[in-house]
Predict the structure.
Amino acid sequence: MLLQYYLVMRQSELFTKTKKEAPKDEISKNAQLLIRGGFINKEMAGVYSYLPLGLRVLKKIENIIRESMNNIGGQELLLSTLHPKENWQKTGRWESMDDLYKITDSSGKEMALGPTHEEIIVPIAKQFVSSYRDLPLSVYQFQNKFRMELRAKSGILRGREFIMKDLYSFHTTEKDFNDYYEKVKKEYKTIFERLGLGDITYLTVASGGTFSKYSHEFQTLSSIGEDIIYLCEVCSIAVNKEIQKEQQECPQCGKKDLSEQKSIEVGNIFNLKVKFSDAFGLTYKDESGKEQPVLMGCYGIGLGRVMGTVAETLSDEKGIIWPHSIAPFTLHLVDVSGGDGSIQKKTDHLYNELLEKGVTVLYDDRDVRAGEKFADSDLIGIPYRVVVSAKTIAEDKVELVERKNGNTELVSKEKLFTLQ
Ligand code: ATP
Ligand code: MG
């Protein structure tokens, strides 16, 4: 399905070119690599555009998350970006939320640029929920959020404008809420595994903020992370230092000497209780006809933050190493014929066959030196690089190089067709 969005796969026709240098003011590794590879463009601190290669990655991340959201009964929608001031006044967050972007139009009307969407979804839910029979419900979206982040120096890990998946769930009883919360927890684990971050991402107990005792975060180990967690390597569970200043014990096995690690919060899940239901009067009639407040949960994942985390943690000095599941293409076919017509013809032919078999392939058909092509290929970080040469033709094979470990093999072209 992704193919229908982007038909250009010849690198000579690609909208972007790789760059030797990232902008001078860009200090984060994730943005440096992603800018140099042509995935994103920096507009100003904390604001980035996604270019064709970057959008392919973003859409793959989105689809993995979407499959999981659908799996747990979420219904996808798209809420507005401009928010009425009145809604934010009702919850008190017009005044209390420091990072809210407030805008005024030429008629003097004030509004907010949505940093999160409880203020929009709860009044909508109120129109459709009246009885216990209407619940439970869960809805989600992928949308740009706006936050006045003062520390916007971490590339796409902390944007002033960024794409989030936010899921909101609505329940009658605490038990029903808890069951759903556990379901989301499990599904998030699957998501981070599929995104290629499973080995370094840990469920983390965190403060519940003002609404509840605990919330849970998903934290990915990284030396540039802004969070500090205490990790129990036995249970693969962590505790956020923010709630527990002193190193404490594992919430699961009681182990005491936990390891202190820096990490990036890639997702979180929250019990909202009745905070927003109360603000907007979101209630349902129970079986005895009595009005009760609806219980709510919210669950976020930052898509750009995931992409940036991958660029930070799954990369080497040469560039990014995309996990297959979110790579912009599966294969990078590099023409190294250097003008040798017969080799070029074979490479062209292989490109067409790969397309026919539905393998996503970026074809470096540019008229530049092989060394430059290989360096670009390492920077862009497609999982497999394929080369046709006189030597491989003699053996009726192609050369396949794996980006993550440099392993090189001669394989039959049929093998490539299995690398979807
Ligand atoms: P942080 O503590 O890092 O500021 P948060 O607690 O404000 O995060 P939420 O409001 O719960 O985050 O947002 C849900 C998810 O959205 C986060 O887990 C993270 O993945 C992502 N996210 C939050 N803020 C940003 C941002 N400024 N840029 C990119 N992604 C973000
Ligand atoms: Mg924040």
About this structure: The chain has a mean pLDDT of 95. The first helix runs from residue 29 to 36.
